[in-house]
Amino acid sequence: MGDEEACVKVLQMSNTSRAGCYSVRMWGYLPAASPQRLPLLQPTPVPPAASSSTDSALKIVCNGGCGFALAISESGKLNTWGSTTDLGQCYLISGKQQEVPEPYPLQIDTPIIQAAAGWAHCAAVTGKGEVYTWGWSECVPNGKSSVDSGINASGRNTEVVVEDTSDSIQSASLLVPPWNSSDVGFVKASPSASPLNASGVPLVTSRHAMRPGHRNTAGGKVCEKVADEVPKKRRLANTEEAGPSENASAADENVFAPPCLVGFEPGVRIISVAAGGRHTLALSDGGQVWGWGYGGEGQLGLGSRLRVISTPQLIPCLGTPEGGLDQSRLVSGCFTATVPGNYIKAIACGGRHSAVITDAGALLTFGWGLYGQCGQGSTDDEMSPCHVATLVGLPVSGVAAGLWHTLCITDSGDVYACGGNQFGQLGVGGDHAEMLPRLVESPILEDETMISVASGARHSAVLTETGKMFSWGWNKYGQLGLGDSSDRDLPVQVAITDADYVSSIACGWWHTLAVVYSK
């Protein structure tokens, strides 16, 4: 859950062009990838992909995934692994393969260049600047099935559904029977017609399962789902803040959507995506940010508490919101006049908040603020992108967001953190929340310059310019890679003894990945 620099690092050299080679290490909660479904407490080599060809080697690790991991191969295939139906995980989200990486069945010819995952949805960017997304229906834009006559390629009947707008949160661990990957059909999202009415109220404000052939009379196109492969499952309790072993239930039934080609305005080319709990951001090559999904706490930055936004909406990160300026907000530097920069260069999604960086290094945050994760000095939710004024003069180069916290790196290589700190995820010692960004200071980091940052749900990781990796925060499932399950409130170096240095890092909700180089 970080920006494109923190999420993934593309290796610029082939494994075969050097004396050594690159490989991926994993640790934390990836049940199918570990013996007896136990957490991996220390860095463990990722098994070779199902295909042993040279271009199947993994080269890019991706942020996100709730009990499953994502990485991109040399050939541009998005690989997933780690999930298991034993524990009720959903193959439609996390891919069919369990123990070893295997290409997710997107069935497209264009290479994937970047990807991210939330609790229960994924998004991937192709070399053509297109975005595919799948998983939780409210996270997948409205569209129409690419298969005509109301059935998918397998001949199964379809059902039409409207997006979920409940306040409940479900995890990725929802029981869905194994599916035939060859049967997955694409959904083409409708172009970005506004989902709002004249009063700015979301057109889709409640969820109903409608009879086949019916349309959503609230407006916009509906989305055809494969009834047999996208079943609903009722669960019992909120799992937003639960760990894997606590995921036995979720508060509401939900519907899963197959891969969808997201529709943007003509000429928009996407270069990176970020996935939050129930929302997605996309960054274009022109430096604009688009968002969709759930926006009840302002995480879509559209100026109000929008429920489900079912088509991508342009977020006014550097522009004046409709209706003019709110003078009371100018004090904190929320709008154009006080935000340096001409375009956005990086994005990140947390559980229910978001962050973006301008080309001038200004950090803007928006969304849920209960724990101070927006870094504005309060616990208020931010409905629109708001400049983190306390970092003025400290250009930000990278950002990552967790469930309740935010991390950023400055051009000078320092790390700042704000938000919830219940498990030490800020790395500043103790467990007190920080309403404003606080410098992560530790003797172990004194001589280090940080170049990349990543965040899981409640743990954090950084990479230094010398190839060292440090982590801190929640460690119940070994996601810190320190050989135990004890939380840490200060940075600790991750020892990867069979590698010379770490090249890039990424964090899932309860796991961590690293690309390492070995001679």
Any overview of this molecule?
The chain has 519 residues and is mainly beta. Helix content is 2%, strand content 35%. It has two helices and 32 strands. The strands form eight sheets. Strands 7-8-9-14-12-10 form a six-stranded mixed beta sheet. It has a four-stranded antiparallel beta sheet with strand order 2-1-32-31, with no helix packed on it. It has a four-stranded antiparallel beta sheet with strand order 3-4-5-6, with no helix packed on it. Strand 3 (58-61) and strand 4 form a beta hairpin. It starts with a helix and ends with a strand. Mean pLDDT is 78; it is low at 3-18, 143-239, 245-253 and 321-333.
Topology:
Blueprint: H1 4-7, E1 21-28, E2 40-45, E3 58-61, E4 69-73, E5 78-81, H2 91-94, E6 102-103, E7 112-117, E8 121-126, E9 131-136, E10 143-145, E11 158-161, E12 187-189, E13 223-226, E14 256-261, E15 270-275, E16 279-284, E17 289-295, E18 306-315, E19 344-349, E20 353-358, E21 363-367, E22 382-387, E23 396-401, E24 405-410, E25 415-419, E26 434-439, E27 450-455, E28 459-464, E29 469-473, E30 488-493, E31 501-507, E32 511-518
Parallel strand pairs: 12-14
Antiparallel strand pairs: 1-2, 1-32, 3-4, 4-5, 5-6, 7-8, 8-9, 9-14, 10-12, 11-13, 15-16, 16-17, 17-18, 19-20, 20-21, 21-22, 23-24, 24-25, 25-26, 27-28, 28-29, 29-30, 31-32
